[in-house]
Specification:
alpha+beta, Alpha-D-Glucose-1,6-Bisphosphate, Chain A, domain 4, 6 strands, 33% helix
Length: 180
């Protein structure tokens, strides 16, 4: 049975879905899932995902140098494309409007040296009978770095990611639900 650090907020059926990140790491050493139900249309949730281009939306005092992530949609950020930067440490590697945003640690970055090769897909899943409700489900795949960092990250990353991405998804949910 998977632990909460690996599957927070997701269903078994969601974990069986094919995610865009699956094409980037063939044999991940770790895979974690996160999910929330959002009472907002898929297009609104996707617009908030596009905001990840400029801020992480988790604990700003930790991963945004104390600067608050924008609390209103920034015009133009919805024009997202492969090759753009997200959250300063990721490259956008795949995107489908109103459906998914897939990010990968920048090659050769401090983040990739410390945590390894990390790819994450944020999937927006409209609920069949509710136009104003969807699921926001993330899948994060990792190949750890060699050596001591890799050994430490195997233990730390799933729990650290749970803390940070849980806050991120809950913030995006709140903001999407508050959007008119």
């Amino acid at each position: 049975m998977p632990s909460i650090s690996e599957t927070w907020g997701t269903t078994a059926a969601e974990r069986l879905l094919t995610f865009p990140c699956d094409q980037f790491i063939a044999n991940p050493e770790a895979t974690v899932y996160r999910g929330v139900t959002v009472h907002a249309p898929a297009a609104t949730v996707f617009r908030w995902l596009c905001q990840l281009r400029v801020a992480p939306y988790s604990y700003d005092w930790i991963d945004n140098a104390g600067k608050q992530s924008p609390q209103k949609l920034t015009p133009g950020l919805e024009d997202v494309a492969v090759g753009q930067t997200a959250m300063r440490i990721f490259d956008i590697v795949a995107v489908e409007k109103d459906r998914h945003l897939t990010l990968r640690f920048k090659r050769g970055s401090d983040a990739s040296r410390m945590f390894g090769d990390v790819v994450v897909s944020y999937l927006v899943l409209p609920e069949a009978n509710a136009a104003e409700r969807c699921r926001l489900v993330a899948k994060l795949m990792v190949t750890y770095p060699p050596g001591i960092y890799g050994k430490v990250m195997r233990r730390v990353l799933p729990w650290g990611d749970l803390i940070m991405m849980r806050r991120q998804l809950l913030n995006l949910k709140r903001l999407a639900q508050e959007t008119e």
